[in-house]
Amino acid sequence: MKVAVIGTGNMGTILIEAFILSDSVLAKNMNIYNRTQPKAQAIKAKYPNIHLCSSEIEAAQNSELIFVCVKPGEMHTVLSKLAEHLYADQCVVSITSPISVAQLEEMLPCNTARLIPSITNKVFSGVSLLSFGENCSNKWREAIRQLASNISEAIEIDNNITRISSDIVSCGPAFFSYLAQAFINAAVEETKIDPNTATVLTEKMLIGLGDLLRSGQYTLPTLQEKVCVKGGITGEGIKVFEQELGDVFNRVFLATHEKFGDEITKLEKQFEHKY
């Protein structure tokens, strides 16, 4: 199967490398294009068998499965260019959350789907979120599920929970990295530990936490119960969280949803179909 990736920014590059390194797609079967060529050329230098295309149209015409990995504001322009060059049995997959599969279907004469990746897919971990157009064939649904499963836990979602699901699996690594760095900074400021040691200890702790959860021996609540002995030191720390965190995560999700709503409003001026 020939696969195109149009847009080789952060997430496009993650998909390219994850597909190749997981042996899901051979480099020689991948066509890539980016508006600014140096980014695509850097990938070509790393994987010489990849075909570097001169336009998004060339990439699409020479592929069966086409991933469009451009910014939301650029999506309508790219889809408009591609539409007249696509045929019914191809499949176009967007990775952009503010654009629904219904909006893809209204513009394109082929199968459509959405796959929202996470940076964790780079190491074949985490979740990728799937949604399919009403007219997407079973053949393409299964093919996309298999590709996603090769690099992640593939989970199909309804359109109405797209933003919160993306907040958790795609934005989540950045959110928790920020919290971890604040954790490290506080340790350095309040004690005699040096930044390097605090960073190493925190990173190893997080890896160990992930391994514990992966093992299935603990859930998040039961793990907290095991560590947090009544009247102990951990419990005192938890009390501070309970007092200080308040509704911070509620406000995080309200902020991301507000931004999401703004993006949808802008995009609906380009697309006839509302989100």
From TrEMBL:
Q: Which residues form the Pyrroline-5-carboxylate reductase catalytic N-terminal domain?
A: 2-97
Q: Which InterPro entries match?
A: 6-PGluconate_DH-like_C_sf (IPR008927), NAD(P)-bd_dom_sf (IPR036291), P5C_Rdtase_cat_N (IPR028939), P5CR-like_CS (IPR053790), P5CR_dimer (IPR029036), Pyrroline-COOH_reductase (IPR000304)
**What is the superkingdom listed in this entry's lineage?**
Bacteria
UniProt entry tagged with the keyword NADP: yes
Q: Identify the Pfam families for this entry.
A: F420_oxidored, P5CR_dimer
**Residues of the Pyrroline-5-carboxylate reductase dimerisation domain:** 164-259
Listed under GO biological process in this entry are: L-proline biosynthetic process
Q: Which residues bind NADP(+)?
A: I6, G7, T8, G9, N10, M11
> Which keywords fit this entry according to its UniProt record?
NADP
Q: Which GO terms describe its molecular function?
A: pyrroline-5-carboxylate reductase activity
| PROSITE patterns for the chain | P5CR
The family note in this entry says: Belongs to the pyrroline-5-carboxylate reductase family.
Query: PANTHER family attached here?
Result: COME OPERON PROTEIN 4, PYRROLINE-5-CARBOXYLATE REDUCTASE
Q: What protein name is recorded for this chain?
A: Late competence protein ComER
State the organism named in the record.
Answer: Peribacillus faecalis
State the organism's lineage. Answer: Bacteria, Bacillati, Bacillota, Bacilli, Bacillales
